[in-house]
Amino acid sequence: MEYLVVCAVALFAAALTLFSGFGLGTVLLPAFALFFPIPVAIAATAVVHLANNIFKVGLVGRQADKPVLIQFALPGALAALVGAALLNGFAGLTPVAVYSLSERIHEITIVKLIIGSVIVVFALLDLMPRFQKLAFERKYLPLGGILSGFFGGLSGHQGALRSAFLIKAGLNKEAFIGTSTVAAVIVDLARLLVYGAGFYIAQFAQLDSGIGGLVFAATFAAFVGSYLGARLVKKVTLRALQIIVGVMLVVIGVGMASGLI
User: Fold this and answer.
1) Nearest to 202 by CA among 84, 101, 98, 106
2) What is the per-residue pLDDT across 25-37, written as a single tens digit (0 to 9) for each?
3) CA distance 34 to 7
C-alpha cells in the first residue's frame, strides 16, 4: 500500500509542481509521513527532491548565476545544517501529550507539532496571492538564503522563500530557473549530510522496512511525473487545483500537529 500511495503522490506532485504552485517536497512529505516517522519521512523526501533537482540541473544548471549562488546558496547551506540538526534533536524528545480517540492512542510530539505547523503555514502562504507577489531586493540575498535554507533543513519547505528572494536579483528567466535549481540542490546536499547521521544512528531499524526501495520507486515516479508535466502543460496556473491541494495540505498539517497522523 505504501508503494502505491507514495509513488502515486510523487508522480502527480512532480507533474503538478509546474502549474499548481506547490513544490514536490511540500506535497510528497505528508505521503511518506503516513508510513514512517517524521524524521525518516523528511529524509526520504529530501532524497527524492535532490534526485529530481539533479535531473533538472542537467537541463538548466549552466544558466545559474554564480555570484548570486555565492550570496544565496552558501548561507543557505549553513542554515540548512542548523535546521536539520534541530530536526534530529526534536525527534528524540518525549511526547508533549498523549490521548485516546476511538480506542487508539495518539501522541503529540514536538517534531510532529513543528512540522505540521510549518506545513499549514506554508500551505496558507502559497494560497495567498499577496505572498506570491512578495519579493525582496538583491541586498537581502544572504538573509533569504539563511531563511530558506533553515526551513529547508528543518522541514524541506524552502521553495517559496527561495523564489521570493531570487525574483528581484536581476536575473533573466533562464538564470533565475538555473540559479534556483542549483541552490535547491546545494541545500538538499547539506541537509542530507545531517539527516544521514541521524538516519543511521537513531533510525537504523527503518532501513529494514523497505524505505530504500520506496525512495527509489518514488524517485522514478517523480521523474515520470516531471516528464509528463512538461509535456502536458505550458506554464499554466490552475487556481482551483491549487486551492484543493492547499486545503488538503492544511488538513494533513493539522492532523499531524494534533497527533492524528
Assistant:
1) 84
2) 777 777 777 777 7
3) 13
